[in-house]
Amino acid sequence: MTRKPVDTGAPDRLYTVTGGRSRADESFDLVTLIVSESGPVPGMQSEHARILELCRHPVAVVEIAAELGLPVMVVRILLGDLLDTGRITARHPRAAPSVASLPDSALLQEVLHGLRNL
């Protein structure tokens, strides 16, 4: 099976969407949940407006990128714009405080076995 190249959009369109910026704030990873704090306003860039509409409920950055059909880096730049203006809130995933606080692998195996038996 041959893989088709990923279409990242026309470079000139992406340049226009990001205002020529190529670096995004590193605070957004793929699973950061984004929530709109306001609705779109007249005259707003269409991609910003679409993000605000999509994020009425928490949505992961990677899901936003997929829905808009834009590369994740471009979406992260757009999210940075919205975060700077207070139009969105970013909810970062919580990391486990330590390996010791994670469930025992034997317990997880038992749960998996139980689920398969259902």
TrEMBL record:
Organism superkingdom: Bacteria
InterPro entries: DUF742
One Pfam family linked to the record: DUF742
PANTHER family associated with the record: DUF742 DOMAIN-CONTAINING PROTEIN (PTHR36221)
This protein's name: DUF742 domain-containing protein
Organism encoding this protein: Streptomyces heliomycini
